Each structure stands twice: as structure tokens, then as C-alpha cells.
Amino acid sequence: MRLIMYYVISTELFALQGDAVASRAAIRFESCAAMSIDYWIDRLEDPFEMFALVHVLRSLGALADESESSRAERAGWWGVSPKYYSVEDEHDIEVVEHLIGSAFVLAQTSITQAVSVLKRMREDAGCPVWIPKDKAAVLSTAAPIHAELGVSQITIINTAADYYKHRVEWKEEDWAGPTLKNKTIVNAVALGLGPKGYHNMVQALRELQIYPDNMAPLGSIVVSWRESLADYLRSEGAKHGVAIHPRYPEEPHGRTAPNSSNDLR
After folding, report:
1. Residue 132 neighbours by CB under 8 Å, 6+ apart
2. Which end of the chain is more exposed for a tag (fewer CB within 10 A), N or C?
3. How far is CA 107 from the centre of its chain?
């Protein structure tokens, strides 16, 4: 009888110890997951990367302005019909197109980094449903929407960058309708881009109400989106019991750090 009682008591003790170990393990996992999310949030909002992005975009705009000014000096600001473009005109136009394309690709790099950050964050946190999973979802989350096209400005930047990188790969028949198979071409057509023409990249830039002589606002769009994305994750995390630290903890004397997206404009 005593042996039976000893066995029952021992079994219950082991069960209780097992529950306690499992509970402590769950707490440790939740703690590690929260710390990991905080780390990736910091990466998402890193102001030093953002300052560099906008600085380079501003420099590209200055170079584009030089080429635009050079062409204007020859033809006047009213310009001439494309059929009367000189070799020098075509050269300056091509330079500006490459500078704008490079700006879009640079901005896309920052977008791709954000997508990668969320992917790593989701994996490290145990794949919670409130963290966007695929690229398309990330690009449309917390992003400003183009009023006429109905897509996010981040998607427009990504499309313009892909168009610039891959346009030389596509054949003319790839652009033939009525049903286009290439998704990037479909998105490019929606932006008014085509297989030929002189000012496709300028057109893409103007869809964002930005002009070649100052492309820093292109970076500001990405910076603001990354900050909004972080705020979205804070809000969604709070709904699911996950506390994510604020962007700027209060400094001594009640001061707070400046808003980086405003500083970058």
C-alpha cells in the first residue's frame, strides 16, 4: 500500500515539475521573442542608414539637375520636339534616366532590407500571425496609397526599380496585349511606362510628385514608411500581448529625440 502511495505521489510531483519546467520555458521563449522583436524594430528604424540613403538621393538629384540645365541652355526651358533632339540632348536625357533609375534601385534596396527584417523578425518570434509574411503584404502595410492607381507608393518605387533593371531583358512581344503575362510589365504599364520613349523614369518619378532635380523626397517616402511599419507592429503586438519598446524613449528633463523622417526631408 505504501509503495502504491509513494508511486502516486511521485508521479504527481514529476507532473508538477514538468508543468513548471514547461511554464518557465514558455516564459523564456516569450521573453527572448520580445527581445528579438525589439532588436529587429531597431534595425527597421535605424536612422543612420536612413540619413545615408537620403544624402545619396539628394546627390543624384544634383547630378540630374546639371544634365537638365545643360539641355535647357541649348534649347531653352520650353524644349524642342523629340524628333529634333540633338545627340547632346539624347545624351543628357539618357544620363537623367540612369540617375533616376539608380535612385529607384537605391530606394528599393532599403525596401528589400525592410522586407528581410520582417521575415527574420517573424521567424525569431515563432511566426506570429500579426507580422506580415510575404513581400506583397509588407509593401502594402502602413504605406501611403497612390490616389489614382490605388496601390502603395512603396509598390510604385519597387515597380519602377524592377522596370529599370529588367527592361533590357524584355522583348517587344512581352509588352503585347491584351493579356500581359509578366507581372512587372503589368505594373509598369499602369505607371505609364513602356518599352520605348525618352522619359520613362521621369514619368515614374512624377507619379510620386517628385522631380529629377531633387530626389531626396524619394528617400523620405521610404523612411516614413519604415517608421510607420514599426508603429504598425507596435500596435499589432500590443493587441497580442507583446510590448515593443517605443521609437525614442524619453530623455532626461522630459525631452524626446527628434523625428528622423522629418529631419530627412
Report:
1. 118, 122, 138, 141
2. N
3. 8
pLDDT, mean of residues 106-126: 94
DSSP for residue 135:
H
Per this entry, what is the length of the chain? 265
pLDDT digits (tens, 9 = 90+) for 166-197: 988 888 888 887 777 888 898 899 999 988 87
Angle of helix 47-75 relative to helix 216-239, nearest 10 degrees, comes to 150
Closest CA to 193 of 100, 109, 106, 88: 100
Pick from 34-48, 84-98, 136-150 the range whose average pLDDT is largest.
136-150
Other CB atoms within 10 Å distance of the CB of residue 82: 12
Answering whether pTM is above 0.90, one says: no
- Per the listing, cell 507592429 goes with 233
Residue in 111, 126, 135 with CA at minimum distance from that of residue 37: 126
Confidence of residue 109 (pLDDT cuts 50, 70, 90): very high
Ordered DSSP codes for 123-134: HHTT--TTS--S
Burial (CB count within 10 angstroms: exposed 0-12, middle 13-18, buried 19+), residue 215: buried
Please count the other Cβ atoms lying within 10 Å of the Cβ belonging to residue 13. Answer: 10
Cα 257 from Cα 214, distance rounded (Å):
27
Domain extent listing, the chain: 2-244+255-263
The predicted-structure confidence for 243-265, as pLDDT tens digits, reads as follows 888 877 664 433 344 454 455 55
Q: Which residues make Cβ contacts (< 8 Å) with residue 168, sequence separation at least 6?
A: none
